[in-house]
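hi!! sorry for the late reply, been swamped w classes. u asked for the two structures so here they r. pasted raw, havent cleaned anything up. first the sequence of the first protein and right below it the tokens
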Amino acid sequence: MLVATMVIEDIFKALGDPTRLRIARLLGTMELAVGELAQVLGQSQPRVSRHVGILCDAGLAERRREGSWVFLRQSESAGPVVDAVQALLALAEAHEPALAALCEADRRKLAAIRDAREAAAETYFARHAGEWDELRALHSADAEVEDRLAEALADSPLGALLDIGTGTGRIAELFAGQAERVVALDKNLEMLRVARAKLQHLTAARIELVQGDFADLPFPDASFDTVILHQVLHFAADPAPALAEASRVLRAGGRLAIVDFASHDHEELRTRHQHARLGFSDRQMAELLRAAGFVTAAPIALEGGALVVKIWTAKRRASANPKTAALETAQ
């Protein structure tokens, strides 16, 4: 009881400052960098960082580092408490004109930040549009691939979903309405900022963006129900570690979906698009998946272009230890 009382005391102390009230209200809208918070609040970054530290110590917010940037979001570990705080803040805003005016001004500045993110994303797209259009011209339309992927995953709930190599965030956006929550991971910071602009209409409770490497995922074992690798695996010189990591973070019976190219001979993709592998044969993929502890399903082929797109799906075995995979197959 004493511990619980101390936690509640910390929460009320943390909220006993107008700036921290405004920060808490903003974090209820979206994840923000410390620099972005400073911009909205019109305060120095060190000062905002001190306020953020108090909110984090009280368990109302949590930090996440992405390169040299530090992002803030509502704490997920104290969900009911955070929800209650947001309800209280909404009530206070409705009955306190001064607070309401501050929060409305903050939201206008936040809208400007969203616009700036979208403009930066459009600039990035414009710079790389030619490269992507060239690659898209070689395979089936994206919409067709997405439809077939959705069909392949439609037989059971998505649960907690991890989108590895999220790129522009398109796959995370596509499945956000069907999953309990989505974590979108990418190694490239610039791509993460593009994805953040695309996904900023989703609440922080529904979507999380994380920087990380597919061969060393920053998540505990058995964290997800579904993992998707969409046009990512051909960048891996050795796909085995990436699939082993996908297996590790999946719960027993969790599903993996891989969208990539069938084996091909377009050598120019190695230099023009940094592809480490020229697609995969069904046999290669089946061997890789079995070695990582998966039970495979029949692959889906989309043959609408010079490059054939394949969708491979699999379920994680109760034990994903490669040493026991062969024994479980025999059983």
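now the second protein. again sequence first, tokens right under
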Amino acid sequence: MSFIERIIERAKEDKKTIVLPESMDKRVMEAASKVLANDIANIIIIGTPEEIEASSNGFDISKATIINPYTSELTENLILQLVELRKNKGLTYEDAKKLMLEDYMYYACMLVKAGYADGCVSGACHSTSNTLRPALQIIKTKPTAELVSAFFLMVVPNCEYGSNGTFIFADAGLEQNPDSNKLAAIAASSAESFNLLVEDEARVAFLSHSTMGSAKHDDVDKVVAAVSIAKEKYPQYKMDGELQLDAAIIPEVAISKAPNSDVAGHANVLVFPDLDAGNIGYKLVQRLAKAEAYGPICQGIAAPINDLSRGCSSDDIVGVVAITAVQAQF
């Protein structure tokens, strides 16, 4: 059974309700029809009848709950709740109403906050900031999390490395240039996410252009400090570094470059030093190795709110919906 088949199986065992606010995107409508046909999750779609009709032509979304923000009986109460949540920031009723009617991601987050839905998936035709800003303002950070970060779940075909070709790449979607403390927190959150979603023990490599002191640079020092912080704060996880990519995942290279490491050569969670490296890395593997790439999957938010790459397919969206549903089970 493949990774995503197992995720879908788990989603079906305890069905959750996921909101899709991008009713203007045909890929989202196609994905919704597939999710509903396979009984993976309950789906709420936000949009006007005109938006729904224009994007859903040819796709069966009859089992979805459609919410028109302009006419729904939920809207007024959700606006009032948003005003209450953001009153300390000076949000007025009129401003809240404008947000809810013009930016469906705010409406989606309020549905999650009010308990009408368990999670949300967006980003097919909106930027990461458009997806995450409402989530951070409304859902907020999980009390146990130090920060919100994002990862891609990569499934590489015919690959003996990682966990049968499955990896987490972090942070590949949100934190631009994390310092050592943030890198350590990203590593811990990613290890937890890997254990949850892949159902295998996380082995975390902090990546660098240096392996165990082979190069000297401030960028290397940042990673070395992150490893030290992570090992002290999160001893429950296997973590090591700094490691070059080949030393992290290839046993033969690890033997010569990092012989005393219990992670080197066997890493399945790859922590990149910054967003440039992480984002470039995931796209290289996705396009050149023809890997499945699910994400950006967010971690650290109080409810599962997940982003999509704007280059996603409908099957990618189905996968992220299933992952979001599994996250919502815990």
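hope this helps!! also noticed smth abt the second:
The longest helix spans residues 180-198.
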